């Protein structure tokens, strides 16, 4: 195990995932992949650096990025975004903050489905929005929207925004058309805008299919801001480029006008990497998804051997969100598994505040490492917790 960890750590010398914890800890937390990069992206970046062409990005490169993203969207989701309504930004989290800041006033409500990607809570705090939550519930082996509760939450969030994650991190749900119709119609009935983070859209496993939220209806499209990026799909978050689609009618929100100077100049490598990925990366994605599917199956089989684990196989993403029931320990589940299994998972408390029974495992790593991680989790769960 140590040798495997050392090899990957050395290769990933610049990564946050690999350099936060002690050397004997297997990192399975932040959402990036330890898998090889698409050769088309590597080659494009090598060419740009060899040509010493790392200055400010041209308008043509920005246009190429948007066109490539749109062509990809058309091929995979049979829709596209009007080019004049697209804004190139540095990353999706920036786009979320930007959208909400321009559309809402401090004190306005923000509705989030929980468990949630932690920056959704952070943005509510930082913009002084009133956080309203509705929890997805495990029913018959999958996480589902509790529509009775959602109706209550929507009423409480009337006039504010729904910040949606489709596909959903951390549960891996890909909301169906019927679910999206119900969610969005409740939002519109309560005069809310929708900010839809679709960063995980390309990581769905057959037969699940991503549906862009704005395609639900013209009324929904008129009230939806969408955030898109190549960063999760192609594992290039470090290149920093993303796109925001905002319908013309929402250009002037009721919040603050955001200075264009705060948008930052899009990185030349981000735009180039994203454009090339969308243009030429389909075959790489298909083969990478085979590895992810294999690892997903490995994780599912492992979960079936553990009666204390409550787990719904993700329909998308490389993230496994699970509950460990009745662990007799005074420390948090995350700390227990960190200490005993020597694995750093995502801490469930960050995704579902107040709950201490969940963790999120990132399985986008070398299969040999995932096998070790699962083995170490097994040993830790088998040990009497009294040793804590
Ligand atoms: C739902 C979601 N949105 C946004 C991000 C981060 O995107 P970016 O790096 O473009 O800010 C992540 C990363 O894991 C994510 O899961």
CATH arch. level architecture of the largest domain: 3-Layer(aba) Sandwich
> Count of helices?
13
Series of H and E elements: HEHHEHEHEEEHEHEHEEHHEEHEEHEH
Q: What name does the CATH topology of the largest domain carry?
A: Aspartate Aminotransferase, domain 2
Strand order of the largest sheet: 2-10-9-8-7-3-4
Query: How much helical structure, as a percent, in the residues?
Result: 25-40%
Structural class: alpha/beta
Identify the bound ligands: pyridoxal-5'-phosphate
Structure, explained:
The protein has 13 helices and 15 strands. It is an alpha/beta fold and 388 residues long. It folds into 2 domains: 130 residues, Alpha-Beta Complex (Aspartate Aminotransferase, domain 1); 230 residues, Type I PLP-dependent aspartate aminotransferase-like (Major domain) (Aspartate Aminotransferase, domain 2). The strands form 4 sheets. A 7-stranded mixed sheet has the order 2-10-9-8-7-3-4, sandwiched between helices. A 4-stranded antiparallel sheet has the order 11-12-15-14. α2 packs antiparallel against α9 and α6 runs parallel beside α7. The longest helix is centred in the last third of the chain and has 23 residues. The two termini are 23 Å apart. Pyridoxal-5'-phosphate (PLP) binds next to α4.
Give the tags.
388 residues; alpha/beta; Aspartate Aminotransferase, domain 1; Aspartate Aminotransferase, domain 2; 2 domains; seven-stranded mixed sheet; four-stranded antiparallel sheet; 15 strands; binds pyridoxal-5'-phosphate
Give the structure's gist in a few sentences:
The protein is of the alpha/beta class and 388 residues long.
